[in-house]
Each structure stands twice: as structure tokens, then as C-alpha cells.
């Protein structure tokens, strides 16, 4: 009965609009909305030998990280600009935090409805959390994400759908952002978890050629229960039995502090320190990380060298063996007529294991 009433109400509204002479318009052509199409064309050839919880394999592969987005905006009231955006993920990437769902779909990256003015910017939908925005850039580039981003105990969120975020205007050199949200994927389960939520904020202060920044995030994370089953073992080619696991609910906390500075003669430096914590009635896990990046530009030619490390984690005050990891990565790049060709070589070491070397040659172009 309720659905019937709802449909009837919609039909009545449609009839009323039609009788008033309101008809559908072709957005961007005969509509007064401003519509932008933007994206990144990015493809690379990578030679890798990595075995961890995200990548397994050896040899060459072609990776297509191209994406596209659409943005429409129009002033609703004076000093209130409404923006609607939908953005795809990488063409052939898989978002492991979403249970293996393909990333190359519309709405996978920042997708929201927002309102902005000289009072700030509010976005409702799928956006980066304030803390992760700093983790992601500049401190996980170039090629440091396997350690500083998703590596380690991962006590922070990244891009979340069920989120309301506010970004302030600049007050001189100072700005801040704050958000609240819920876990939209059960940390791999594929469904929203109402028991999992977070609140976070960041702040930045710039003067001269240096920017100080920091972020904090606190919340509850839920890892759903899993039934017993079988899991493919790439080393043996067999299906190994996997025991059932109960649901785990953690109180999560993370913080980051860092800076980015432009130095004379084309040099620059950035560094950050991050701490994370997962805590429940059975155990408490903590881990700290840091990232240091230097760069040099001589006209259109640039070079970046980065090093990131996850220090050993501790569970209930005791050090976890082989829980540390580090990555050192160098990237040579150029900017020519909007194109950015690059060569990146990175070495990653986990615990006492041998260092894995990953070489990547790629080309990017933003439009």
C-alpha cells in the first residue's frame, strides 16, 4: 500500500510538471548547468615479483589506471553552488577492500553531491576521509602505498561512501576539514556495516614555501565472521582448508603529522609520521610508520626518491615477529605538452624476507 501511494505521488508530480511546461533537457547542451568531463589516461608496463596480501605473481604485466569523471554545477542560491560529481575507478584495477569488486565502474572514486561558497564546502557521498587525504598525498607517492597506505595493521579508512565531509575556506594560511561516516564495505564483506563508524579531521597551515599538516581519526571497525571453506594456494596449486573466523569489532584510532617544503634550486622535501591502533576486549595492536620523500626538478625533468617504513607492530605490548616492512622507490619523470612519461624502480622488504624489486614504465595524461 505504501509503495502504491509513493508511485501515485510521483506520477502526480510528473503530470503537474508536464502541465506546467517543464520538460527534460539534454544536460550540457540546452541546460544551464555547467558540465565538465575530466579524467586521466594512464598506462604502464610493470615487472614485479611481489607476494603479499594484495599482489601475487612474477613477470611482466600491463596495468591500465585510466579513469573518467563527470561534474555538473549550478548556483542554487546566492553563495551556494551545488555540485554533482560521479567518477570511475581505474579501468582494470580491483579494489581489494571491497571484496574483489572491480574498480573500473562509475561511482567508484569520488562521487557526491556538494554545496560550496565562501563559507566552505560540504560534500555528501563517497570521498576521501580527511586523514587519508594526507596519507595518500604527498606521503604515499611515488610507489610507497604498499607500506604507508594499505600496509601494516591498516587502522584507518580511505575513501568511504557513507560520509558527510566539510572543508573550511582558508583563513590566511590555515584550513581544516572534518567528516563523519560509516564503513561502507565491511572491510571486504561487500555490505554496509552500521556498527562501524568513524569521525576524522585534518588541519593545514602554509606560510612562505612550507606547509604543516596533521590529521586524526577515531571510530569502530567491524570485520565480519567468515564460514569455513577453502582457499587457493598459488604455491602448490591446491585448495587449502580455511577455518571459520568470528566477527571482530575494533576500536580504531590513527593520527598523522607531517610537512612539505619547497627548497631553493628546484629541490623539495616532505616527511610524515603516522600512528595506528586497533583495540578490542581480546587484544590491542599498535604500529607506527613514517615516510620521507625528496624531489628535484630541472625545468621539465624531475626526480623523486622516497622511503617509507612500517615499524614492528605490538600486540598486547609484545612485538610481532616480521611485522615490519619498508619500501624505497625512485622515479624519473618528465612533463612535455601535458604528457608525463616516467620510470619507477622500487624495492620492498617485509620482515626477514628478501627484497622484492618492482620496475614500472608508464605514461600519464590528464584532461
Automatic annotation (TrEMBL):
Bilayer topology: Multi-pass membrane protein
Main location group: membrane
InterPro entries: Gram-neg_bact_OMP, Gram_neg_porin_domain, Porin_dom_sf, Porin_Gram-ve
Gene Ontology cellular component list: cell outer membrane
Residues forming coiled coils: none
Compartments where found: Cell outer membrane
Domain Porin: 13-325
GO molecular function: porin activity
Signal peptide: 1-24
Pfam families: Porin_4
Alphabetical GO biological process terms: monoatomic ion transmembrane transport
Record SUPFAM superfamilies: Porins (SSF56935)
Alphabetically ordered keywords of this record: Membrane, Signal
Gene3D superfamilies given in the database record: Porin
UniProt-recorded name of the protein: Chitoporin
